[in-house]
Each structure stands twice: as structure tokens, then as C-alpha cells.
Amino acid sequence: MYKIMLADDEGIVIDSLTYIIRQNFDGECQVESAKTGRSVIELAESFRPDIAFMDIQMPGINGIEAMKEIKKNSPNLIFIVMSAYDKFDYAQEAINLGVMEYLHKPVNQKKIVEVLKKAMDMVDSRREKRSQDLEAKEKLEIVVPMLEQGFIMTALLQAQNTAGIENYKSLLGIAQDYMFTLVLEFGDEREGRELTNPVGAGVRLQSSYQQIRNIIREYYTCCVGPLMNNRLVCCVPTDMEQGDYESRAKDVERCRQMIEHISDACGLVCRIGVGSILTVDKMEKSYEDGAKALGNSDGSVAHCRDLPIFCKYEEDYPLNLEEQLFDYVKAGKSQEAQKAAGDFFDWMAGTQADYLPNIRLKVLEFILFMEYIAYKSGGMVYRFRDRAEYLEVVQTDSLDEMRRWFLQKIKEAAANVASKKKEYSHEVIERAREYIGRNYKKDLSLESMSREMDMSPYYFSKLFKEVTGSNFVEYVTGIRIGRAKELLRQGGSSMKQICQEIGYSDPNYFSRIFKKWTGQTPTEYKEGNEE
After folding, report:
1. Which CATH fold topology does 440-529 show?
2. Count of alpha carbons within 13 Å of 47, Cβ hemisphere only?
3. Can you tell me the distance from the alpha carbon of 121 to that of 79, in angstroms, rounded to the nearest whole number?
């Protein structure tokens, strides 16, 4: 249905247009008319037409001024001007207003129908685009929360998945490199630093999740995570590397207002812990800081930087360099770790040279902690006596010698993180190969083999394929067929004896497998390859 407004001070024109429209577009159009500029403006506001036939000269407000006023509230209305006046100024103003057609009276029926069809096509096109836009928006309302939840879970639980994090950032249009977390906690009542009935609150929150999400986004442009029992985690992008007093005070006040809004909406007590501003790959640490702030405060809003939950460092201590060194070792980046270790040692040598015992202790502290990181990453065997010489080495008075040893140990720790898991995989599969080589005569199955290696069948099978390129059954079969070929070439053994020797109880089954692998039956192979 198209709404068409006719604006002309001549009744005969309105009647003629009405007749033409009904004759050519019967049942498709709803037509209303007005004869003065003021009544046209009022009709446009109440009728909300799609298409308007406008005369220029009407009593009171003329057609040009009426169109200007109407466009304020109906910018998409399609205007068709019909005028007996052939003035250039009128035509120019009409064009400037975006009029679709400027027709000179009298206009024949064919032209009116042609112009009206064109206008209807424009209306249809705009409606289709509007429908598509609404559909896209509707889909976006579903997809965006899922992307935000995926981003937060990846940042909190898979910080090493940098490619995944960057992909989420791109999809969500996040340009900032820094973020801080808001940890929202819900309960029935507050008792000191605890909220009562967390499980019940978590269940009740399910029905209010979307409403709470919308409220949060009124206060912060952020990603809202999924409900985790009675907690909700948000990540707020920021351009600041570290918040100042003013920004911290604003965040606390903003959270206080948000809590009132959320509590009114869901009927639960809400508290918020604000975490540290950190890079995206350290959101887990920001979350820990926000959660720790909640545990160390009685207030409804707890900012981690307002509470004594952090270790304080003397002013010139290179904390960023220390954290960078830890990150490189954890990531297994040996060259970068060695460079950071060198920079840190140079700081000690340049500023603490008079305190050699302290440098020795710091070197030992770092090496032991880095090795702990390497052991914790898996794939290494801890031996209690491996560090016996460390105390002796750090007793040297030569800073250069101590520096070389320090850098080498840091490099080894980072390299171990990167390589030991791979080495461990090869070690396991090499032991499996040796076991198969000794026991292929037995009834070897994937389950019995994985039990021998103390692994789940699924993981052992996956690891075996990654290292050897063959699945377990194929590998064992290949070993058995290889041994069968040797025995067939040597001669002197019956088919039954060969089957027993390589772990097959059924000669017919062995014969089928042998032919599948070699293209020949055991007898054909024997006759062609006897030694």
C-alpha cells in the first residue's frame, strides 16, 4: 500500500489525479488531499505519505516553502511538482529540495502514470533497504553479544592465543591496545565483604542478562561477558596505559550510579570490582585484580588501585622490564628474553654496583623463578640436585662473568618452554616405537598401548600420528608385514609359524592383509623372493 498526498488549490486537479490513480493502481494506494500550504503541512504530519504531488502556487504558504517544512519531519518523502508556472527560480529550488520530477501543467495521464510508477519503485527500494537494515541490525544484536562473550573468554582463559584475540578485536572494532575489567558480583544481601545466596542469584540473573547488559553499555563502551554463576565480567577498552586519579574517581562514581540502576532492574544486590589497566593479553591479571579488590573491600565499588593489594616498588626499579622478561620466558621467546635479561642486568650493574650481594641474590632469584616457569610449562623432569653449582657460580666477583651466566640461563629457560613439550612428545613416541618393536608378536591394541604409555587413547593416537605420520594400527601392521617379508624370503617357516611369529592367529586374515599391503599373496611373494 502506497500513501499518496495531493496538494493543489484546484479541485479539478485533485479529482483528476485521484481518478487516474484509482484507475491505474486500484487497491494499491491510499489517497489524501489538501488545498492550502498550511493544511498540506498538517496533513503530511498526520498522514505520513510516501509520495506527494505538489503545486507551487497555493493560498498562504506556497508549495516550495511547504516542502521545506515537510522535509524536516519526512526527509524520505518523494515529491512530484506539478505547476503551471515555468519559472526557472521555482524549478531550481525544487531541484535543490530533491524533487523527483518537475511537471508543467497540463500533464497527460500517461506521463502521470509513468512518473508515479517510478516513485513507487523508489518507495519499494527504500522499504527493501530498510527491511534489510533492520534484519542486519537484528542479526547484529544476536551476534555481537556472542562475539563479546567469546572475546572475554579467550582473553581470560587463552591469553596465549594472540591471533584469536586480534581477530575478535577486529570483528568488534576495538582499536585500543589497553583495557581494564569490571567484575560485577550479585547476591541477595550483603554481609561484610560477601554476598549471600550466590547460586540463587546466578539463576535469577539469567532472565535479566540482556537488560543488565544494556544498562552497562549506557555507562561504558565495553564488551560484556557471559554470566559465570553470580559474576559478570566486562572489558573496557581505553587509550590510557595507566589511569590517573581523575579517571579513577570518575570510574568509581560511574560504577556507583550503574549499581543503583542495575539493582533496581534485577532486584539483587550488586558490587563492582575495577581491575588494572593492562594490555589485552593480560586481561586475566586485570580480572584477578578486580576480584581481589572485591575481596578486600566492604564497599559497593572497589577499585584495585585504591586498596593495598599490590606490592610497592622503589621509584627507579624497572618493573616494566622485569614483567617483560617474565612474559618472554613464559612465551618461550629465548632471544627476546635474553635481551631483556641483559637490559635488566645492565640496570643493576649501573645503579647497584656497590651492592654486589644484592645483585647475586637477584640473579639467583630470577634464574630460579624462570626455571620454575619452564618446569611449570610441562615436558621437563625436575631433579633435586640439578642446581648444586648455582650458589658457587654467583659467588664470582666478576659482573661480566655473572652477566654471561645469567643471560645463558634465562635463554635456556625460555628455550625449554618452547621446545620441551615437543621433545617430550618425541620421547613418548620413541618409547612407544621401541615397545612395539619388542612386542609386535602380541595382541597390540591402541588401548593397551596407550595404557602402557599412561595416556588416554585419544591423545596417544593424536600424538602418534603427529610424530610418525601414520596412525597406530597402520604402523603396527607395517612392522608385522616387514617381518613377514623377511621370514618369507628366508624360507623354512610354514604359514602358520609366520603368523604366530608376527602376531596373527588367522592365516586367512594374514593373507588378506599381506596382499592389501604388497599386492601379492604370501605364497606369490615367497616364490618370487626366495633367498
Report:
1. Arc Repressor Mutant, subunit A (1.10.10)
2. 24
3. 14
2-107 maps to CATH 3.40.50.2300? yes
- Per DSSP, which regions of 258-322 are E strands? 269-274, 278-279, 301-303
Residue 86, burial from CB neighbour count under 10 angstroms (0-12, 13-18, 19+)? exposed
Residue with cell 613439550: 421
Taking a C-beta distance cutoff of 8 angstroms, is the pair 325, 406 a contact?
A: no
R_g of the chain computed on alpha carbons: 40
CA atoms within 13 A on the CB side of 27: 0
What is the per-residue DSSP string for 353-414?
TT-HHHHHHHHHHHHHHHHHHHHHTSS----TTTTTTHHHHTT-S-HHHHHHHHHHHHHHHH
CATH for 145-306 is 3.30.70.270
The model scores a pTM over 0.70: no
pLDDT along the chain (531 residues), means of 10: 91 91 90 92 93 88 89 90 72 76 86 92 90 74 85 84 85 91 94 89 91 94 91 93 86 94 93 93 92 90 87 86 89 89 94 92 92 78 82 88 92 82 73 89 87 86 87 90 88 85 87 90 80 51
CB 257 within 8 A of CB 219: yes
Cα angle: 207, vertex 220, 138; to 5 degrees: 55
